[in-house]
Design a protein that fits this description.
With about 375 residues, the chain is of the alpha+beta class. It has eight helices and 27 strands. It has helices spanning about 25-40, 80-90, 105-115, 115-125, 140-145, 150-155, 175-185, 240-250; strands spanning about 10-15, 20, 40-45, 60-65, 70-75, 95-105, 130, 135, 160-165, 170-175, 190-195, 195-205, 205-210, 215-220, 220-225, 230-235, 260-265, 270-275, 280-285, 295, 300-310, 310-315, 320-325, 325-330, 335-340, 345-355, 365. The strands form eight sheets. Strands 17-18-19-26-21-24 form a six-stranded antiparallel sheet, with no helix packed on it. It has a five-stranded mixed β-barrel with strand order 3-6-4-5-9. It has a four-stranded mixed sheet with strand order 11-13-15-16, with helices on one face. The longest helix has 16 residues, at about 25-40. It is globular, with a radius of gyration of 25 Å.
Length: about 375
């Protein structure tokens, strides 16, 4: 897994749930980090603090190693309030953003030195990977045994080449619902509301509705989140502990921490509508000119009803069209796929699974010259 010179890019590792208000300042920080990363340093971006925050880890700056860049002296775990105030007064401490820039080869070298077990597990998962439309699917069994560790713990806190570039770009970690309340617009009572929501005697709260009417009365300082998957009600001061609920879901063997009712795919999406012991109903949307992969299910049959559009059905060696108010049946063990025959509008179908076994792992994908690469 050693990268060659031609295959050794700089990797800018960014979190999807962070907010950057000053794009220009962020780009300048990346430009400062780029030559350091090219020289083999592992760069992290430390957010210059403006308050004694206890929800973030900190990075203490060491000696200067360039223009607005410093050697990492040490990483510090989330402090208590008194310690966070000391860091703010002393200066030279930045919030640990979890954003990085480094060469692929250097990261692999450091990972091999400090956590070779993680590297081996990833190599094994990659060797067993397969192409699935626009995705590369790692070997699930191999990847599941990979140790669970962060870039910080596995490499950055152990390497001698860690460098921090201070970042002042209006950064916010939107990793919690309370953070969304802080950055969003609020009404005169301090409430931030999104979706179908009715409020009365509600103050300083964040209420989000995705699919149902949510009504609140007589509450203060709460987060109320309704999605198609679950409902969360928590004090704003406690939402950072939501991982404890995730742990409970895992301990109880529940699937909510892994699966969503609506799943997006390169060709469109599918959404769970209803399910029982021996049936499952989904709404499937196929984008114009797109198609699903050819596949076989050995333990379930499928019924497809076209609600809107025209579907091209691939059934074993046959191909045929079905339109609105028409349906087709796919028995277990038959290779099949479905495509949107329209170039403009999406195809909408209702898909019904029936059989004694409805495990989502009951999928064997078939390589076909007609499959979308």
């Amino acid at each position: 897994m050693q990268a060659t010179r031609e295959e050794d890019p700089l990797l800018l590792v960014l979190a999807a749930d962070h907010r950057i208000q000053d794009d220009s300042a962020f780009i300048r920080a990346i430009q400062i980090a780029q030559p350091l990363a090219s020289e083999g340093k592992l760069v992290t971006f430390g957010v210059v603090p403006n308050s004694p925050e206890t929800g973030y880890g900190y990075i203490q700056r060491g000696e200067n190693v360039g223009d607005h860049a410093y050697k990492v002296l040490r990483f510090v775990e989330k402090p208590d309030l008194a310690t966070a105030k000391q860091y703010l007064e002393a200066g030279g401490y930045d919030w640990n953003s979890g954003l990085f820039l480094f060469k692929a080869s250097r990261y692999l070298e450091e990972l091999n030195q400090h956590r070779p077990d993680i590297l081996r597990a990833c190599q094994k998962a990659l060797l067993g990977a397969h192409q699935d439309l626009d995705f590369i699917r790692l070997d699930e069994t191999a990847f599941q045994v990979c140790p669970d560790d962060s870039v910080d713990y596995a490499v950055m806190e152990k390497t001698a080449d860690a460098v921090v570039v201070p970042l002042e770009a209006g950064w916010s970690d939107i990793g919690s619902w309370s953070a969304l309340w802080e950055v969003n617009n609020k009404d005169s009572q301090g409430n931030s509301v999104q979706g179908d929501v009715l409020i009365d005697t509600t103050h300083n709260s964040y209420i989000y509705s995705q699919s149902k009417l949510v009504a609140t009365m007589g509450i203060n300082n709460l987060v109320v989140i309704e999605t198609k998957d679950a409902v969360l009600v928590a004090n704003k001061d406690q939402v950072q502990k939501v991982s404890q609920i995730v742990d409970q879901l895992k301990d109880k063997g529940r699937s909510e921490y892994l699966k969503h009712k609506k799943v997006y795919r390169p060709w469109g999406s599918h959404e769970m509508i209803a399910e029982g012991a021996h049936y499952r109903v989904k709404k499937v949307i196929v984008k114009p000119k797109e198609r699903t992969a050819m596949q076989i299910h050995y333990h379930r049959a499928e019924h497809w009803v076209v609600v809107s559009g025209t579907a091209r059905v691939f059934y074993d060696q046959k191909t045929y069209l079905i339109e609105g108010n028409e349906s087709t049946y796919i028995p277990a063990g038959v290779a099949h796929a479905i495509a949107n025959a329209c170039k403009i509008n999406p195809l909408e179908i209702i898909e019904v699974h029936t059989w004694a076994i409805l495990d989502e792992r009951d999928i064997k994908r078939i390589n076909s010259i007609n499959d979308k690469k």
